[in-house]
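Pasting as-is:
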Amino acid sequence: MFQLHALDQYFVHNANLLGASLLARLAKYTADESIKDVALSSLRYSMHHQKEDGSWYYAEKRTLIGSILFIPGLISRAFCIF
């Protein structure tokens, strides 16, 4: 899973899916199964945390949960890769 930066101790779904989509494209061109596995694992993580209404919490961190509910353009763009 991917964070906004290395100091974060939580995952942010738009950053996670953007990183996953980058790895999915890389796996396609390199045929590297380990890269593909990481991309799919990250995708599964965010899909598992999707709410029933189709949105996500901004991040899976107690102080941020419930603060922002949205489906950002980055997430929509990341799904185009898969």
